[in-house]
Amino acid sequence: MRYLIRQKYFAIKDRYTIFDDANQPCFQVEGRLFSFGKKLTIFDLQGNEIYFLKQRFINPFGRFDIFKGEERVGTLKGRLSFFVKRYKAEGVWGSLKVRGGVFGFNWKIFNKENKALVASLSKKILQIADTYVIDVVDDNYDQAILVAIGILIDAIHHKGR
Length: 161
Hints:
Elements: E1 2-6, E2 15-20, E3 25-31, E4 39-43, E5 49-55, E6 63-68, E7 71-79, E8 85-91, E9 94-100, E10 106-111, E11 117-124, E12 131-136, H1 143-157
Antiparallel strand pairs: 1-2, 1-12, 2-3, 3-4, 4-5, 5-6, 6-7, 7-8, 8-9, 9-10, 10-11, 11-12
């Protein structure tokens, strides 16, 4: 499955729709206007909250907690690395490794136990608005959590938008 994330170029707060490969809307994302750290909510098309993503305010490598309702179901943590960018996503879905290139435009998400590719994320360059493509290879994973990881990678590495 392929998902397309296209954020608005000029927006007061984060609010955008995520589309599938048939250009049908799948998820809505909405951020908080005034908050310490990023706070994003992923909704289904009926307006039901799927995940709430909350940045830990003081963390040098970037860390987000992922909530489903009031329960924390996982985290995305930055890892110390000099050339490649690395993250670890752990939660009810298992343990995933996220590796990115030096410039933060291409990412791969691997299952930590068997090292199998789960999804890839790439930022399209030369676009007016931030545009990302998430290609999910392993359909056994919750699609919304893989989209959430993609959204968090953008929130950490492309803060200006």
